[in-house]
Each structure stands twice: as structure tokens, then as C-alpha cells.
Write a structure and sequence with these properties.
The complex is a heterodimer of chains A (321) and B (714). By secondary structure, chain A is α+β, with helices and mostly antiparallel strands. In chain A, 43% of the residues lie in helices and 18% in strands. Chain A has 9 helices and 9 strands. In chain A, strands 1, 2, 3, 4, 5, 6, 7, 8 and 9 form a 9-stranded mixed beta sheet that branches. In chain A, β6 and β7 form a beta hairpin. In chain A, α7 packs antiparallel against α8, α7 runs parallel beside α9 and α8 runs antiparallel to α9. Helices cover 49% and strands 14% of the residues of chain B. Chain B is built from 27 helices and 18 strands. In chain B, the strands form 5 sheets. In chain B, strands 1, 2, 3, 7, 8, 9 and 10 form a 7-stranded mixed beta sheet that branches. Chain B has a 4-stranded antiparallel beta sheet with strand order 13-15-16-14, sandwiched between helices. In chain B, β9 and β10 form a beta hairpin. The longest helix of chain B has 24 residues. Chain B is flat and about 95 Å long. The chains are: A alpha+beta (321), B alpha+beta (714). At the A-B interface, β4, β6, β7 and α9 of A face β14, β16 and α10 of B.
């Protein structure tokens, strides 16, 4: 067992030549890979989410029977994981690349592995494995069966056969691939610190993102006002609940344009506000489960309303008739 | 002509969770055996030897040898009407016989007469042609696959499709070289298998199990777990022994990596020795938990700055995999060090207020409340053991350890590594200058984790462990959380087993009922103030006693009747009960004791029979009514032995006390030979019953011998 020269290596000047893809090229390559496999290229959702799954392109699209394929990047905010940009691996906001394939194709594992080859990972020289990891989101009432994919011991992707979403059993099953882009880029470039990743040929991840990391960490750990954040949570929850209850009273003719999507946006707001309160240390463990339950209640009602609405709209348009 | 052949079944899956493969292959073997026997393709007595099953992450495999290629033809007798009904007085067939013949499509003259226990009957012998195994198996194998049970199965296409642990992607089913055609979950069976995901070919045709195994090996799959395990063990040895190192022993991890890889290879990597400043427990947990690495230690047991990773490749010639693993471990260790430092920015006890916000159970309040109850109990228990080496300082120590025991639940480290609860608290306590004994007590207080797992290492630790478990048990029973069947969310069975194990193995003399009452009192006195009724205390006691029976049986190896005999005489002090069981076991088959035990059973029967009559009122034996010599002698012998036994029993010398009791045997034998209990004279009868009752009562305080079975085990 010869000793590594890791500490000595650190003292050497940084290699001039970039190893691996830049962060943005990695993103582009993966998007290209999946769009050439019939995925719709979507944009990140424009309100704060904790994971790509919360984007309506996943949360709502996996419901019902219509086939769909989509790929999009989703910057995901996890206030409790923030470290003011000082930790080499932990981020307030990390970037996921999300792929949904509905229904799940039989060659899905091969499709996924080929995407790794497409970004320059030689599968015969690296240890790529699928280790049991069943994903679950209590706030969304969603869970699935699958793995985390490890590349030489590093978790790079969550691979899930969705079984339930918003409390609804899924039929057909969608497969969800969630790539952790930041860590994949760091791995490909051979850097230990995500902030040293080259974002483009000239700019580092640090240059692009560190102000965000510092300031949002500071907000959620030090500045957020618990009382007003709670108030916002309550307001968003109440508005979402009001919409959902109005929806329940509608006559069938008016259902088509009813803003279920807005009720969902408000639910997402609640989820993010909850995360801020949690990071701020303002929620006791006892209270925690209760607040998660409140968000889940909205999410499951949205899922049901959305399903019913889609069925009605399709029936009216004669789809599938 | 060839009549038997070999069956190969391979269920090709996406990666099956490593922990489930061994159990699933065992079940596959059972199911396939069942189907082969019921379809008459293999005979029951040979089935176990002819089938084997094994698995790897992407495949479950079963091989059956000597499978009949065609079911044997079979004849079957179908019983028809009784002969008396089928034939008239001239012996001619009746309508009943004719209609039976028609139904069976057999001419009436070819029907048989068979004799049965119910008399003679008409019968038809039908011969059933055997079916080709290929067809039989095409029906049986999908059933076999469907019947494998999984802890958490999934569907992967539509909701009405079959469920399995992970999607099935191919099925190879070959009998004597030919494919058995069927489909399961839209997958059609064939004669092809897939090699290693990255290094092997796919769609490899196979003809036999030998061919299958050889081709898989060429394609980088070792399909047998034993082979994989051996490869891992050998490589670990060769990587470490040269440098006088060894892998940290971890059979569970070895088993896991055996089932995580189809072609395992061990590589070694290094980490910065500066991380060795972190406690071993944390380093090992980081390496094994997240990364599934073996820690490496020197001969002294001290950790060395290396790790062993098992990868699913034949080699890592460019060192790319190793560099990747080292990088990941650096990040993990950096996190652990961050938690270690940031958790200790304040003292362990400073986490106490935060425990008040963590719910233990809705009705039972927070962990803060639980800690207060456990402290009270720990003090109470420690006071019971002043005579066991406990001092006033230890009482204070137990209180302190109970106070700190749960603090680590709200640290970052335990949030990251929940399996380190207790351990982290103990390590922090030690690093922060708590006395060693208190730090270990915190560290150990979740122990023992099972019947064969170690106890807390010191008496304070045992005290805190008992207090914590006792509180969980009585508190949960108090609000109606009682384990049923497989549902035991608060692990109360384990808690009760732990209580029994600590008391018995540390030989801590304590009254179970007093202990439970103390816990009930603590629940009443501290928030949220739960009232525990005496019935619930009794129910809890019985639950603990039930676990104690389990312990005596499974761990200590006593038999049911020995345990029953002693428990019938009371088992509130478990250590005392253990001594009595040992004494009973030691002498139960001795020359005098065994017949005496039989006589006691006879006494009990007599007393039970007389229970309905009014013969039982008399308590004291009246010497004036003792008529026969045998009963006078018995009374005298009992009196003499009684004193002798009482002394030995007081000294807890139970074996010698039981030997004393065996001396009653001749007198008891003579009594039963010469004296009739159920005589006409009511007074005499009542007196004799009183004599026997007093005998049973006085000599059953160590054990109720009438519970003992008579037969000596072979």
C-alpha cells in the first residue's frame, strides 16, 4: 500500500489544462443526450424548490396515463445544507439534472449508462454500481423504488421507479433520473472542492456562485425572521387551501381553466418557507412533522385535482375516445 | 432413452438489493422443490439434494438435476357406488353401475371391485398419460417466480403487472438443453444470459449449468456467492498481510459486498493520517456505513490510514477507481471532523433543553421528559445495589449518565450517523472530561442489542441501560403500546430481553415487580404524568417474565418444564430463579427425585379432584387422626426434612435443598402403597388431604415439581 502524495499534490500549481468537461458543457451534453432521445427540453422552475421532483414537469406529469419525456436542469435550494460557500461539498443550492421517462422503457438502465459514456466516463475503467436506495418525499406524498448510482464510491444519480406521487398510485410507472451535476463536474475535473470547478472555460464555479452561497446561507441561518416567515407560510398555505376548496365546489364546465397550477405554486412556496424555518432552527422536532404534514396535505390535494382536471379536459377534447 | 435431464432457471434482474439475495435464493429453492415434487418431476426424498439455488446482484439462479423429462404415466382408481347398490341379486349391473361406467368411459365389465374400510365398492381404473416436463414447467416456473416474497416489491410498467423486487429483464429457462417457453411480466424466457454489465457480452446462449457457469466466468460474473466471498477474503489477506496489517473484522460487511458485486476485486486506498485523531468508531462507521469499505488496522488493533474497497471490476490498473474512492472518503472525513468540532462547541449537557423539543411518543412527552424519568429510575436501581459494589458516588454517577444519555440525539453527528447513537454521546462525554465510568455508561446504554450481544461494560452503564429500557417498557404499556405479532415499533421485546439479560448476566438482585412499580411511580411523578394501573403493571411484569422464559430456553438452554416448574414457584427475583432452575436441572433425573416428582404430580391430581368437594377446608394436620403407620411416618419425615431444607434454602443452596427433599421419597412411596386417601371417614379423608396439601405447599417453594415431565431426554 504505497502512500498517496495527496498533500504534496496540493502544493503544486493547478494544472493548466482542464481535465473533463466544464460545468456548462456537462449540462449541455446531458441535455443534448436526452433531447435526442425524445425528451422535451424544459427550463428550471421559476420558484424556489428543494429538488427537481417538485417541478410541475415531474410532480404533475407523472400522474395519469399520458406518455411524456422531459429533461431539465433544476437548481435546488436546501437551506439547511448551506455552508456560506466555505464547505467544499455542501451547497445551499445545488444543480440537479432531472429526466422523466414515462412510461419507463425496458432498456432504461442502458440509456442511463450511455449518458455517462456521453460525458466521458469510461464504464470499463470506473466502478459504477446501483445500490439500493428507495427515494421518498414526505412533503410531496411521493415515493419510489430504486438505487443511488455510485461512481467510484461517489453518489452521482438517484434512479427511481416512481410508485406513488401526491398520494396517487402511478400507472404507468415513470422513471426519474436525478443527476447531481455539481459533484459529477467536480469528479470529471478531478477537483476536491466544488468551488474550483470550471463553470466555463474562463469562469470558476466560485466566480459564478459564491455570492449566492454566502448570502442565502446567511439569510437562512442568521437573518431570516422566524415570525414573518411563519406568517408567510400561513398566508401561502391559506391561499392554496382556499383555491383547492373552491375547486371542489366548481361545476364541471368551469374546471378546465381553474388555477390548480397556482395552488401548487403556493404549496411549493410553503415547502421552501418551511425549509428556511428548519435551517433557522425555529422548528422543534415535534412541530416539524406537523408542518410537513400540512404541506403534504396541499400537495396530495393538488395531485388529485390536477388528475381530475386533466381527465375532464381530455374527455372534452375527445382525446382517447 | 434418456429419461431425466437438468433444469436451469435464471431470473435476470436489474440490481437486487444486496441484503435480500441470499434469502430470496433460499426461497427460490424451496418453491422450485415444491413445484417439481407436486408436478411429479422429481421425487420428494431426493429433491433436496438435486436442487441448488444461488444469486448475484443481477440474477437469481436455480439448478435442478435429474428432472424427469416426462411425467410418468399414472393410474388412478376412482371409487364408484357400493357393490351392493351396483349389482342386483343376480349379480347383474344396476343402473347405478351403468351410469358410473358411462361417466368414466369404461365398459362395465372392466370395472373393478375394491374393498375399502366401508365395504366393497365398484371402482374404475383410469390411466393418465404423463405430460412432457417442458409443458409442465412452462406453467410451474412463472408461478415459482411469482411466489418469491419480498419485503418491499415494486411494479415497473403498469399497475396491473406482476410485482418483483426490481424489474426482471431476462429469464433463462433451459431443460436438458432446450428452452422452456413461458413469459412473466412481459419477459419471454429463452436460453440466453447476460454477463457483467460493462465487461461481459449480453445474450449469451447456454445449454447446461456447466456451460452457464463457465460462460459467465468468461464474461466476468462469478455467479456463486461462495466463490465471490473467497475471492474477496483472499485479496484482503494478500493486500494486508504483507504489511503486517489486517482488515477490521466485519462479517456483515463481507456478506454485503459479496452480494453487491458480480466480479468483486479488492483495492486498497489511503487517507490522511491526520484523520486518525477522530475516534475509531466514527472513522469505521464512515468507512463502512456510507462507503462499504473495510477499515484497516495494525496488529495492535490500532487503525491504520488505509481502507479496502471492493469494486465490481477485475482490476484498477490505472488507479482511477482508487483515486475516486480516496477523494470521496476525504470529503466524508472532512464532514465528520466538521461535525465533531461543531457539535462540541458546547458541552453535551447544553443539548438537554433541545431534547424537550424532540417527541418520544405523542402521549409520553419528549425525550427531555424521558430523561427525567430515567434519572429517577437509575437512582432507584443504583440504591438497590449498594451491596453489589455500588457507592453513593455511583448513585450520583448513574444519575449523571442517565442525564447525558440522550443528548447526542440532537447532535449533527448522530443526525448523520444514527447508528452511532449512544456511542457519540459517550465519546463527547469523554472528550469533555466526564469521568470514564460515566462516559462508558452513556456509550453503552443501548446495549445489549440482542440476545447474543454484549452488555454495558460497567455497572453504571447497566443501571442506565436498565432504567432507559424499563421506562420505555412501562411507559409504552401504560399508553397501550403493546407488541403484537410482528409489530413492535418501540422495540419493546428487545428492551425486555435486555432487562432480563442484564439482570441475569450481571447477577443483579432486584424484584421485577418492585422495579416496574418504581417505573410506574416515575411516570406518575414526572411530566406528562401518566397513570399506570396495577393491571398494566401486572401485564408488563408478565411480558418481562415471558422474555425471561425465552432467555432461559434459548440462551441458557433449559427446557420448558424446568422453567415452568420454577416459574410456578415465582420468579420475581430472576437471579434466584436462575439458581433454582439450575438446581432442578441438576437433580431432576436422580434416583429419588424423579419418582418423587411423579408422586407430587399424583398429589396434585388428588388435590384437584377433591377441590370440588368440601374436603379442602382443613389446613393443619391433626396428628390424632393419623392412623396408619405410613402416614405417621410421612408426617414425621416431612417435619424433619422441612427444617433441614429451610436452612439450605435460606443459604440459597438449592441443589442441596432439593436433595434434602428427595429424601421424602421412601415415605411418600410407602404412603401411597399403604394408605388410601379417599376413605369413607370424612375426617380421616380431610386430614389426609390436608397432609398432602401441606406437603405440596411446603416443598414447592423452589419449584413446582408436578410441572416436570417424567421422561428423560435421549
Amino acid at each position: 500500500m504505497p502512500r498517496t502524495q495527496s498533500h504534496k499534490q496540493k502544493e503544486k500549481p493547478k494544472p493548466q489544462k482542464l481535465k473533463g468537461l466544464t460545468f456548462q458543457d456537462l449540462l449541455l451534453k446531458l441535455e443534448q443526450y436526452w433531447t435526442s432521445r425524445d425528451c422535451v427540453l424544459q427550463q428550471p422552475y421559476d420558484i424556489e424548490v428543494g429538488a427537481g421532483t417538485m417541478h410541475p414537469e415531474t410532480f404533475l406529469r407523472v400522474l395519469g396515463r399520458e406518455p411524456y419525456r422531459v429533461v431539465y436542469a433544476q437548481p435546488s435550494r436546501r437551506p439547511a445544507d448551506g455552508r456560506y460557500g466555505e464547505n467544499p461539498n455542501r451547497l445551499y443550492k445545488h444543480t440537479q439534472l432531472q429526466v422523466i421517462l414515462k412510461p419507463s422503457p425496458a432498456n432504461i438502465q442502458d440509456l442511463y449508462l450511455n449518458s455517462l459514456s456521453a460525458v466521458g466516463i469510461n464504464l470499463k475503467e470506473h466502478d459504477v454500481r446501483f445500490e439500493e436506495d428507495n427515494w421518498e418525499s414526505p412533503t410531496l406524498g411521493a415515493w419510489g423504488i430504486g438505487w443511488q448510482v455510485l461512481l467510484d464510491g461517489l453518489e452521482i444519480t438517484q434512479f427511481t421507479y416512481f410508485q406513488q406521487c401526491g398520494g396517487v398510485d402511478l400507472d404507468p410507472v415513470s422513471v426519474e433520473l436525478t443527476y447531481g451535476l455539481d459533484r459529477i463536474a467536480a469528479y470529471l475535473q478531478g477537483v476536491d472542492n466544488v468551488f474550483d470547478v470550471m463553470w466555463s472555460k474562463t469562469m470558476t464555479y466560485r466566480q459564478v456562485r459564491s455570492a449566492e452561497e454566502q448570502q442565502f446561507s446567511a439569510y437562512s441561518f442568521d437573518y431570516a425572521d422566524a415570525a414573518s416567515t411563519r406568517k408567510q407560510f400561513d398566508l401561502n398555505e391559506a391561499e392554496s387551501a382556499r383555491l383547492l376548496s373552491e375547486y371542489g365546489k366548481l361545476k364541471s364546465g368551469a374546471i378546465g381553466r381553474f388555477p390548480v397550477l397556482q395552488a401548487y405554486d403556493l404549496c411549493l412556496k410553503c415547502s421552501h418557507l418551511f425549509n428556511i424555518l428548519d435551517a433557522r432552527g425555529a422548528i422543534s422536532v415535534t412541530e416539524r412533522a406537523g408542518m410537513i404534514g400540512r404541506v403534504r396535505k396541499l400537495a396530495t390535494q393538488v395531485a388529485q385535482a390536477w388528475l381530475a382536471q386533466r381527465e375532464m379536459v381530455q374527455a372534452a377534447a375527445g382525446v382517447g375516445a | 432413452m434418456k429419461t431425466t435431464g437438468e433444469l436451469l432457471l435464471e431470473i435476470g434482474c436489474e440490481e437486487i438489493p444486496a441484503g435480500m439475495i441470499a434469502r430470496a435464493t433460499a426461497e427460490l429453492k424451496e418453491l422450485l422443490s415444491k413445484h417439481l415434487v407436486t408436478s411429479r418431476l422429481v421425487d420428494e426424498p431426493t429433491v433436496d439434494d438435486s436442487i441448488e439455488a444461488f444469486g448475484a446482484p443481477r440474477r437469481l439462479v436455480a439448478i435442478a438435476k435429474n428432472v424427469r423429462l416426462r411425467q410418468e404415466d399414472m393410474t388412478r382408481e376412482i371409487v364408484g357406488p357400493p357393490k351392493a347398490v351396483a349389482c342386483d341379486s343376480q349379480g347383474k349391473p344396476t343402473r347405478a353401475a351403468l351410469s358410473f361406467s358411462e361417466k368414466q368411459s369404461i365398459p362395465v365389465e372392466k370395472l373393478l371391485v375394491i374393498s375399502t374400510p366401508k365395504g366393497e365398492y365398484l371402482a374404475a381404473r383410469q390411466s393418465i398419460a404423463g405430460e412432457a416436463a417442458r409443458e409442465v414447467l412452462a406453467r410451474a416456473l412463472p408461478e415459482c417466480i411469482r411466489e418469491i416474497s419480498w419485503p418491499r416489491s415494486m411494479y415497473w410498467t403498469t399497475a396491473d403487472s406482476p410485482r418483483f423486487i426490481r424489474p426482471i429483464r431476462w429469464i433463462a429457462a433451459v431443460l436438458d438443453g432446450a428452452t422452456i417457453p413461458f413469459s412473466f411480466a412481459d419477459v419471454h424466457s429463452g436460453n440466453r444470459t447476460d454477463g457483467h454489465r460493462f465487461l461481459g457480452k449480453s445474450g449469451i446462449p447456454v445449454t447446461s449449468s456447466r456451460d452457464y457457469e463457465l460462460k459467465l466466468k468468461k464474461n466476468f460474473v462469478l455467479c456463486r456467492p461462495d466463490e465471490r466471498r473467497k475471492k474477496i477474503e483472499e485479496e484482503i489477506r494478500s493486500l494486508t498481510s504483507r504489511r503486517s496489517l489486517r482488515a477490521h473484522d466485519d462479517p456483515e460487511l463481507l456478506n454485503l459486498v459479496t452480494y453487491l458485486n458480480e466480479y468483486p476485486t479488492v483495492i486498497s486506498g489511503d487517507f490522511d493520517p491526520a484523520y486518525l485523531q477522530l475516534p475509531d468508531e466514527i472513522l469505521i462507521t464512515v468507512m463502512r456505513g456510507h462507503q462499504k469499505y473495510f477499515a484497516v488496522e495494525k496488529r495492535s488493533g490500532e487503525l491504520a490510514p488505509h481502507f479496502l474497497a471492493v469494486i465490481n471490476l477485475p482490476h484498477d490498473s490505472k488507479g482511477l477507481v482508487r483515486a475516486g474512492h480516496e477523494r470521496v472518503l476525504r470529503a466524508r472525513f472532512a464532514d465528520a471532523r466538521f461535525f465533531w468540532d461543531s457539535d462540541q462547541k458546547c458541552k453535551l449537557e447544553a443539548y438537554l433543553p433541545k431534547l424537550a423539543t424532540v417527541t418520544y411518543e405523542r402521549r409520553l412527552g419528549s425525550y427531555g421528559d424521558k430523561v427525567e424519568r430515567a434519572r429517577t429510575l437509575a437512582r432507584w436501581l443504583a440504591e438497590q445495589w449498594f451491596n453489589r459494589g455500588m457507592t453513593q458516588a455511583d448513585v450520583a454517577g448513574s444519575d449523571r449518565a442517565a442525564e447525558l444519555a440522550k443528548c447526542d440525539l440532537v447532535t449533527e453527528m448522530v443526525r448523520e450517523f444514527p447508528e452511532l447513537q449512544g456511542v457519540v454521546g459517550g465519546l463527547y462525554a469523554r472528550a469533555q472530561g466526564e469521568p470514564e465510568s460515566i462516559a462508558w455508561a452513556v456509550y453503552d446504554h443501548y446495549k445489549p442489542l440482542g440476545l447474543d450481544e454484549p452488555l454495558p461494560r460497567n455497572l453504571i452503564g447497566c443501571t442506565v441501560a436498565l432504567a432507559d429500557k424499563l421506562d420505555s417498557l412501562v411507559a409504552c404499556f401504560g399508553v397501550g403500546i403493546v407488541p403484537t405479532g410482528s409489530s413492535d415499533p418501540f422495540a419493546l421485546r428487545r428492551a425486555a430481553t435486555g432487562i432480563v439479560k442484564i439482570i441475569l448476566e450481571r447477577r443483579l438482585p432486584v424484584s421485577l415487580s418492585a422495579m416496574i412499580s418504581a417505573a410506574a411511580k416515575a411516570l406518575q411523578e414526572h411530566a406528562p404524568r401518566i397513570d399506570v394501573s396495577s393491571q398494566i403493571e401486572q401485564q408488563t411484569l408478565e411480558f418481562v417474565l415471558d422474555r425471561a422464559r425465552f432467555y432461559f430456553r434459548e440462551k441458557a438452554g433449559f427446557s420448558y418444564d424446568e422453567i415452568n416448574a420454577v416459574f410456578a414457584a415465582g420468579a420475581d427475583d430472576l437471579c434466584d430463579a436462575a439458581d433454582r432452575i439450575a438446581a432442578v436441572k441438576a437433580i431432576r433425573y436422580s434416583k429419588d427425585f424423579a419418582p418423587l416428582a411423579a408422586s407430587f404430580k399424583r398429589i396434585r391430581n388428588i388435590l384437584e379432584k377433591s377441590a370440588g368437594k368440601d374436603d379442602k377446608g382443613q389446613v393443619a394436620v391433626r396428628p390424632d387422626l393419623l392412623k396408619e403407620k405410613a402416614e405417621v411416618d410421612l408426617q414425621a419425615a416431612a417435619q424433619k426434612i422441612r427444617e433441614e431444607v429451610a436452612v439450605r434454602k435460606k443459604d440459597r443452596n438449592y441443589k442441596s435443598a432439593l436433595e434434602g427433599i428427595s429424601k421424602l421419597r421412601p415415605s411418600v412411596d410407602k404412603f401411597f402403597d399403604g394408605v388410601l386417601v379417599m376413605v369413607e371417614d370424612r375426617d380421616v379423608r380431610k386430614n389426609r388431604i390436608a397432609l398432602l396439601a401441606s406437603l405440596l405447599k411446603e416443598f414447592s417453594t423452589i419449584a413446582d415439581f408436578s410441572e416436570l415431565g417424567a421422561d428423560e431426554p435421549k
